[in-house]
Specification:
247 residues; alpha/beta; six-stranded mixed sheet; four-stranded antiparallel sheet; 8 helices; 10 strands; binds adenosine-5'-diphosphate; ATP binding; cell membrane; ATP hydrolysis activity
């Protein structure tokens, strides 16, 4: 019953001039497992703030973000089923687990320029404590998924924008996330490259069942891959539903 439920989420910034700004104003959304959920709006609508709240890079002023969470019996090592948990109440351990299972990609890729492609992708696995041999195997697997096996030893500056985004996607997938958050991932790319990245995201969603939440100012992106969409304006959701019903 619901993969992510956002309830009455509010983020208020106190500005230097003493005024308050409602960047996210009473937002409620239901995201089902397997959705590619697009959030569209003009610059300043509150999209980035919303996505940062979803990853807890930012704390809300009020509201809830309920995420379906698997409860595991540690002694018997078996699943006891699922319950909805408010990520805003996660302790450090649960938050770390949640972040590990949440991949993120960005408009400007955010790769480490001093590391080659393989080492960029290996980075989150090293942080998670994977063994060297397992990392090598997993990196090769990820390179194949994003179609960059031949660029393994290249450095980011030797890659095109589309290739850089593929590296970033591989890195985001490294820990087998259940959720992928995309912040204007195709906004810096030309139309043809945009299409190939959108196709890749669609593939990943289908093949691995990863739920994707993406924010964009481009209606084309929503129409092309999102089954559901919401339109944001001045911090509020002014429309939401199945993409084909909205457009
Ligand atoms: P979008 O991603 O849709 O362009 P943002 O979430 O970046 O919108 O911004 C929403 C509103 O919140 C804007 O008016 C922006 O200026 C404001 N805002 C964003 N971050 C901060 C911040 N750290 N401090 C103050 N205001 C902010
Ligand atoms: P933990 O934080 O519980 O120690 P890890 O970070 O070591 O978990 O690994 C995350 C998950 O990926 C675990 O379920 C682990 O079994 C699995 N895993 C570890 N190495 C590999 C690998 N080479 N290929 C596929 N899955 C792996």
């Amino acid at each position: 019953d619901g993969f992510i439920k956002i309830r009455n989420l509010v983020k208020e910034y106190k500005l230097n001039n003493g005024q308050e700004l409602l960047a996210v104003n009473d937002v409620s959304l239901d995201i089902e497992q397997g959705d590619i959920y697009g959030i569209m709006g003009l610059s300043g609508a509150g999209k980035s703030t919303l996505i940062r709240l979803l990853n807890r890079l930012e704390e809300p002023t009020s509201g809830e973000i309920l995420v379906r969470h698997e409860v595991i019996d540690k002694k018997k090592k078996k699943s006891l089923g699922y319950e909805n948990k408010n990520i805003l109440k996660f302790n450090t351990r649960l938050l770390r687990e949640y972040r590990k299972k949440t991949g993120m990609i960005f408009q400007h890729f955010n790769l480490l320029n001093s590391k080659n492609v393989a080492d960029n992708i290996a980075f989150p696995l090293q942080i998670s404590g994977w063994k060297k041999r397992d990392i090598k195997k997993r990196v090769d697997e990820l390179l194949e998924i994003v179609g960059l096996s031949d660029k393994k030893l290249n450095y980011p500056e030797q890659l095109s924008g589309g290739q850089k985004q593929r590296v970033a996607i591989a890195r985001a997938l490294a820990n087998n996330p259940q959720l992928l958050l995309s912040d204007e991932a195709t906004s810096a790319l030309d139309p043809r490259t945009t299409n190939s990245i959108l196709e890749l995201l669609k593939d990943i969603n289908k093949k691995f069942g990863i739920t994707i939440i993406l924010i964009t100012h481009q209606m084309e992106v929503i129409k092309k891959i999102c089954n559901k969409a919401a339109i944001m304006s001045d911090g509020q959701i002014i429309e939401k539903g199945e993409t084909k019903e909205i457009f």
